[in-house]
Specification:
heterodimer, A: 388 residues, eight-stranded mixed sheet, 15% strand, globular, B: 196 residues, alpha/beta, 7 helices
Chain lengths: 388, 196
């Protein structure tokens, strides 16, 4: 996902929020991972907005995408310039209304925004894990989140909501812990990566690993593989946009010049934009985390993991009501992949609503202010909450 | 009329549900568990906003995915005349639902007959306001045709009503005599035939 973090045009916000930490899975009670390894102790960074009601039935879990974090809404300090990454959706009176719901968002396992990942200190060696960090899966991320929900005393989640890799976690939640999930809103996502999606991820990973500073993942005491990570981010950005959005946003316009430079400067606006996005990203993101999370996304295959190869069988386990949403110009996770989810749910007689939103902004559309999206999420949450 | 045929608390699928007016009414007044299929994005958005469960898609395709006997009633309002394979759709309806409620404009209303007879042009009426070149109605059918169709496809007509509307008004009068000539719309409740 890109960074579109914008302030709410009406200035409505959940206000000042705090990043909290939950540490668990101390030895010998470590978290068993899908790859066979065990991991612990673990820390999850998380934030909550709104109030858990006495019936404890108004909890909404937001699951973030590749480069997101626990900071979904609000500000850490009143002087902060930018709010959390989904502030347009999460807040008082918004699509996910913090006056009504208790919203939780935690940083995913393997990331670098406060949750344990390859850049964290390995308690056994007292050095950052690097590539000693086990390869985690979407299922492992969800298992860790479940421990957080246990800790918060939430037996049943009203809704799990997320886009892209966050959407994969939504699907995983609904099938891995069916009795814990009342409803699910997967946005712009898929039950498994296409070869196309894996291909882009592979090129991005190769860019990181080809950077001499990467040093086999062991770079925490030296210079970062910034060039590789920046190129990886640039590749990602291309897949988040669309032909139409790039034409409208950049076309062939030149950046700060009237003529070609006849050298290899960033002549075009699109080139300059990608370079800027790449440079900005390396300031806040860990290259190894990028490798681990993209690999988790590539491995994700709901049908294989939960249905002996059948998506329909996988979804037979869920008890959740679904709202599935795709976007017309999303070519990373095209609509046919969302329709596959809808088809599998329908074949199982599950309650599913589906809408393909007309949007020109490509995969990133789910992060942009789209009134229709907010209204549908609001209406859906209202219904599922009434039906508890 | 359609709403009055539906038992409270039943499971209802509305094919081509539009903005969900019928489903919303049935959900709030009769406690039904409603589901809709609609192609138009903005109408689907409106439905989901109102708290209805709706799938965006082509009813002819989506209907194939539902398990048998998922619904008590499946409503097909004013759409059969636009369907490419009506017999296939009716069979699918009766596969996944106990009852079908099908309504359509009656092409043998006397006004239509008279127009064709007197002007020699494709008829245009308040109920069928299209020209031949822009009509979505690809099937020309009458109440009598539908009764004949039921025997061919092998479904049973449980009850029927013939409606006469004046102009564009929403609710017409029920008529009981010479229906094929006098009704502007026909509504049929159908179910799987016992013989076939």
């Amino acid at each position: 996902m890109s960074e579109y973090i914008e302030n709410d045009p009406q200035g409505i916000s959940v206000g000042v929020v705090e990043k909290k930490f939950f540490t668990f899975a101390e030895a010998p009670d470590t978290l068993k991972l899908e790859c066979g390894a065990s991991l612990g102790p673990l820390t999850l960074a998380f934030e909550t907005y709104g109030t858990l009601n006495p019936a404890r039935d108004n909890a909404v879990l937001i699951t973030h995408a590749l480069s997101g974090d626990s900071h979904a809404a609000g500000y850490y300090a009143s002087e902060d310039k930018k709010p959390g990454w989904w502030d347009i959706m999460v807040g008082p009176g918004k699509g996910i209304d913090t006056n009504r719901y208790f919203v939780i968002c935690s940083n995913i396992l393997g990331s670098c925004m406060g949750t344990t990942g390859p850049s964290s200190l390995n308690s056994q060696t007292n050095r950052p894990y690097g590539l000693d960090f086990p390869v985690v899966t979407i299922g492992d991320m969800v298992s860790a989140q479940k421990r957080l929900l246990d800790h918060l005393g939430i037996e049943k989640i009203l809704a799990v909501i997320g886009g892209s890799i966050g959407g994969m976690q939504v699907l995983e939640w609904a099938i891995r812990f069916p009795e814990r999930v009342h409803s699910a809103i997967p946005l712009a996502t898929t039950t498994k990566h296409s070869a196309l999606a894996i291909a882009f991820n592979e090129v991005a990973r190769q860019a990181i690993m080809a950077d001499p500073n990467w040093n086999g993942g062991n770079y925490y005491s030296g210079p970062n593989p910034s060039l590789g990570l920046a190129v990886a981010r640039m590749i990602g950005h291309i897949t988040y946009l669309s032909d139409e959005s790039m034409r409208l946003k950049f076309g062939r316009r030149l950046q700060d010049r009237n003529d070609f430079s006849y050298n290899f400067d960033a002549d075009f606006q699109v080139a300059s934009y990608l370079r800027y996005q790449g440079t900005k990203f390396v300031e806040r993101f860990d290259a190894n985390s990028f490798l681990y999370i993209t690999k988790a996304a590539d491995y994700f295959d709901l049908g294989l993991q939960h249905g002996n190869g059948s998506t329909v069988e996988a979804f037979s386990k869920t008890q959740a009501r679904f709202l599935v949403i795709s976007f017309t110009s999303d070519w990373l996770y095209p609509t046919y992949q969302s329709k596959k989810i809808v088809k599998a749910l329908t074949k199982n007689g599950k309650d599913v609503s589906f809408c393909e939103i007309e949007a020109q902004w490509g995969h990133d559309a789910f992060l942009l202010p789209i009134e229709r999206l907010s209204e549908m999420i609001r209406g859906f949450l209202d219904r599922v909450h009434r039906h508890i | 009329m359609v709403a009055s045929w539906i038992e409270p608390g039943s499971r209802v699928l509305d094919l081509g549900c539009g903005e969900g007016d019928l489903l919303y009414y049935l959900t709030t007044h009769k406690g039904v568990e409603g589901k809709g299929i609609e192609q138009d994005e903005s109408k689907v958005v409106r439905c989901i906003e109102r708290g209805l469960s709706v799938l965006q898609g082509d009813m002819n395709e989506e209907i194939e995915d539902f398990p048998e006997r998922t619904f008590d009633y499946i409503v097909l309002s004013q759409t059969l005349q636009q369907v490419y394979e009506p017999d296939r759709l009716i069979r699918s309806i009766l596969r996944i639902g106990q009852n079908g409620i099908v309504s359509f404009p009656n092409f043998s209303h006397w006004r239509i007959r008279l127009q064709l007879l007197l002007t020699g042009k494709a008829p245009v009426t308040p109920q069928l306001p299209y020209q031949w070149y822009d009509t979505p109605n690809i099937r020309v059918m009458t109440i009598n045709d539908f009764i004949h169709f039921s025997k061919q496809v092998g479904f049973e007509i449980v009850k029927s009503a013939a409606i006469n509307t004046q102009g564009q008004e929403k609710w017409g009068r029920t008529i009981t005599t010479m229906t094929n000539l006098r009704a502007t719309y026909g509504i049929f409740q159908i179910k799987q035939g016992t013989s076939k």
